[in-house]
């Protein structure tokens, strides 16, 4: 690690104890930016890096709510407003039992560079709660969301901070959150949240964007080697919003997706995942992936192991952080994998990334490959601000352009710094320089 970056990292470890995922995200970033710090020593001046790793604001609050038995439950809410150099804080809300300050900080830190890579005017932030919507009734979810917004509303706004969905937060939750924001502020401020439903300010294509964008990025990487997605065998993990639309778009491109998973197990479907059935089980019935295998002839359910044991050409981890480790990566490499694009945030461990890079596998970090979701959120904000509504094809064309630009920017940046093909280095440096230049322009704040 560059000596200036190493000093910053030691400080991060000392000042943020017991936050391993945050340390991991910062370490990956600081490892990558050495070459640009050598070329531009001004980036090591005026505590620029020290400011970058310190969130501008961290909000932690109590979320009390009444469950269906009339019992009061207490959860903890978070919003980490990490960096506003490029625009209002922007990033999702995650509702999952694993959420704590460490998780929200790692996600918020990644979001700064992801949002920068989109080329749009959005800063980085993230939030959420240790509330788990699974198994909760709609009314319980509504009461939780109303209580959560009862505090969050004073910190957000279309020009301040614009939350959206992430794990456990979809159109239903965004609806309840928006309703409460509108009631508390007496404003129909459409651009305060993204991922809204289509009838009241949502954008066509937002639901599909993260998964579609991830597959577009994988296709761009393959194209650099003269290969295409058509005819390739693909393993996907997860079965939420990102996984479903990654599977749909990969199959639209002529690939065959053979796996999906949830936290209890995974499904192998040699014939190719039936996306309509997957949508019915996950989006309509809010069921478990085991039901897919129960209903689809020829599909096998495994409660042990991970999808990565299947020999495939392309792997798209779309579940959660650190879900693919060094041993999974070695298994995938042995099985012939040639391309890995992260639909989730930080799903590959540092050891897994090293295995892929040493084996010459095309590997794209989430901050580049899954940026299509937040990019389309920014397109939703643009439509809200201009009170217009674009067609699906208009949004999809813009998404395709943005993903192609991110790919080329990462690839060209990596090549410029003598690391052709290293998308981790390319994404981190390209994301960093835009934020760093804006921070320098805006003074020591
Ligand atoms: N949660 C998504 C992400 O990780 C989307 C955020 C957004 O749309 O603001 O980028």
UniProtKB/TrEMBL annotation:
Gene3D superfamilies: Glutamate Dehydrogenase, chain A, domain 3, Leucine Dehydrogenase, chain A, domain 1, NAD(P)-binding Rossmann-like Domain. GO terms for molecular function: glutamate dehydrogenase (NADP+) activity; nucleotide binding. InterPro entries: Aminoacid_DH-like_N_sf, Glu/Leu/Phe/Val/Trp_DH, Glu/Leu/Phe/Val/Trp_DH_C, Glu/Leu/Phe/Val/Trp_DH_dimer, Glu/Leu/Phe/Val_DH_AS, Glu_DH, Glu_Leu_Phe_Val_DH, NAD(P)-bd_dom_sf. It catalyses: L-glutamate + NADP(+) + H2O = 2-oxoglutarate + NH4(+) + NADPH + H(+). GO terms for cellular component: cytosol. One of its GO terms (biological process) is glutamate biosynthetic process. PROSITE patterns: GLFV_DEHYDROGENASE. The record marks 166 as: Important for catalysis. Belongs to the Glu/Leu/Phe/Val dehydrogenases family. Homohexamer. This is Glutamate dehydrogenase. It comes from Winkia neuii.
